[in-house]
């Protein structure tokens, strides 16, 4: 069964702490289960701290370019800087962590159309293997923001379910029913 959750990330300091958490080497098999898209990777074999800094610089540079182009300087921490997604899989699905990481990458590529930078980190520290996905709120061209709404969340679930089903995961039927209330 595949379950997806979304959390908005406010504040650049929180985004940095979140990057540090999702790249935890104890949970990602020494960073082997980390993938990204659109990032400038200038290190051959980075340590955990170097990787956190590299990803944070990538996101921050994109933010600065967006702010300069749109003449909007951040005044409050209310601005959404990233979107944190969790994609959880049941232990009964019998998928390898590498397959789950690939599913997360394919889901994000299709959802964002390759326009937004993202990180996919697969955590294996719990009974259920799950992806932590961090999408930059500003696209790669630094001219548009990702607005998270119900339609995008529904698309995420549909894309995630379709790709997961092709990989052999079980899919939850109707998630919400008025009869359950």
Question: Any key phrases for this structure?
Answer:
181 residues, alpha+beta, BirA Bifunctional Protein, domain 2, five-stranded antiparallel beta sheet, 4 helices, 5 strands, 38% helix, Relaxase, Endonuclease_MobA/VirD2
Helices and strands in order, then pairings?
Blueprint: E1 2-10, H1 12-22, E2 34-37, H2 48-70, E3 80-89, H3 97-112, E4 116-123, E5 130-139, H4 150-167
Antiparallel strand pairs: 1-3, 2-4, 3-5, 4-5
Helix pairs in contact: 1-2, 3-4
Q: What does this protein structure show overall?
A:
There is one protein chain. This protein is an alpha+beta fold and 181 residues long. The chain has helices at residues 12-22, 48-70, 97-112, 150-167, and strands at 2-10, 34-37, 80-89, 116-123, 130-139. It has one domain: BirA Bifunctional Protein, domain 2. Helix content is 38%, strand content 23%. A hairpin with a 6-residue loop joins strand 4 (116-123) and strand 5. The model has no long low-confidence stretch (mean pLDDT 86). InterPro entries: Endonuclease_MobA/VirD2. Residues 48-167 form the MobA/VirD2-like nuclease domain. It comes from Streptococcus pneumoniae. This is Relaxase.
Number of strands: 5
Class, according to the CATH hierarchy?
Alpha Beta
- Taken in chain order, the helices and strands follow as EHEHEHEEH
Low-confidence stretches: none
**Biggest β-sheet strands, sense, barrel:** 5 strands, antiparallel
Cα separation of the termini: 22 Å
Query: What sort of overall outline do the alpha carbons produce when their principal axes are compared?
Result: globular
Number of helices: 4
Please list the strands of the largest sheet in the order they lie side by side: 1-3-5-4-2
Report helical residue fraction.
Answer: 25-40%
Mean pLDDT: 86
Structural class comes to alpha+beta
Strand content: 15-25%
What integer value in Å does the Rg equal? 17 Å
The third-level CATH topology is: BirA Bifunctional Protein, domain 2
CATH architecture label name: 2-Layer Sandwich
InterPro entries: Endonuclease_MobA/VirD2
Protein name: Relaxase
Domain MobA/VirD2-like nuclease: 48-167
